[in-house]
Amino acid sequence: MALSHELRNVPLASQVHHMPLVLFRAEDGRPAALPDRCPHRFAPLSAGKVRNGQIECPYHGWRFAADGRCTRVPGTNLAPCSKPLLDSLPCCEAHGLVWVSLNVVRPQAPPVAPAEHRRKLDTLWITDQVQCSLQEAAENFLDGFHTHFVHAGWIRHDKKRQKISAQVRPLADGVEALYSEESEQSGLISRLLERERGTSMGRFRLPGLAEIEYRDRNGDLNLLVSAWLTPSGDGHIRLFARVATARNWIPAVLKRCVLRQLFRVILHQDRQVLEQVSANQRRFQATPATPLDGPQDLLGPSIRRLLEHGQPLVFEVRQLDFWL
């Protein structure tokens, strides 16, 4: 995956599930994905250039079309290949992202979309890379109970908890927690972005979308953060987060500037604790253990089962009360 606006007239290196890829725009403007390795001497194609919608190797100038055919070998009179020398991968653009499938056959289902809303939104994108598993990243993103400590002052305070109700329910492709009876949070981000809060939601949808959504008393959107989580190999997760807020009197440029700085602080704090957890797990590889789930782990066990089995969950809606 990559951000659509980043894919212009230069190649872009990416990696999905240990597969190094080069992304570029073909002659018709559509995104194309090839293995990031020239078949001649294995130079990285992402270090080359895009020439008329084709990728040119930086070593000897071999050129490849979006379908993987070699179209030029400088210094020879060879005709363009009729068969691909590289396996082209299906890709498309949706929701501001470039999507790549490692399957040769193009997926029939469209890429998982963010929640829809009737209000006009101001959006910004933040990307990051974290050394952890997809399950750990998703659970961290959707876990409200760590915010009092990891993000103390930014999102919540441990000494200013509120009694709330939480409803956990299965989705067709995931799981969702709906929180009610929570007023405005005590942290800086809530004071900047919200009026009085009505409901909030945290959801996970396969294959890797985690979302946090805040609404006011009228059911209108205050904040929607959609994070697409992609395993990039070597125990790392690539995060593409879209932060959306309701359009209001604050200029979008100013809002993006402030929010980008705020959310970079939050992501840095999360990355730090996740990498500490990941490193500590590696220290205890000789004595592996299963995470101990507590009553406040509303979504973690369900996320784990979804990722293990890749099928919808079946359970009765659960209603719980907590101090959050």
Notes on the structure:
By secondary structure, the chain is an alpha+beta fold. Helices cover 19% and strands 35% of the residues. The strands form four sheets. The chain has an eight-stranded antiparallel beta sheet, covered by helices on one side. A four-stranded antiparallel beta sheet has the order 5-6-7-8, with no helix packed on it. Strands 1-10-9 form a three-stranded antiparallel beta sheet, with no helix packed on it. 31% of the residues are buried. The model has no long low-confidence stretch (mean pLDDT 90).
Radius of gyration from the alpha-carbon trace, in angstroms: 22 Å
Order of helices and strands: EEEEEEEEEEEHHEEHEEEEHHE
Number of strands: 18
Strand share of the residues?
Answer: 25-35%
Strand order of the largest sheet: 11-17-16-15-14-13-12-18
Q: Report, as a whole number of angstroms, the end-to-end distance.
A: 34 Å
What helical percentage do the residues reach? 10-25%
List keywords for this structure.
324 residues, alpha+beta, eight-stranded antiparallel beta sheet, four-stranded antiparallel beta sheet, 5 helices, elongated
Q: What's the topology here?
A:
Elements: E1 2-3, E2 12-16, E3 19-25, E4 31-35, E5 49-51, E6 54-56, E7 63-64, E8 70-72, E9 91-94, E10 97-100, E11 121-131, H1 134-142, H2 147-150, E12 163-171, E13 174-180, H3 188-193, E14 197-205, E15 209-216, E16 221-233, E17 236-246, H4 252-283, H5 300-309, E18 318-323
Antiparallel strand pairs: 1-10, 2-3, 3-4, 5-6, 6-7, 7-8, 9-10, 11-17, 12-13, 12-18, 13-14, 14-15, 15-16, 16-17
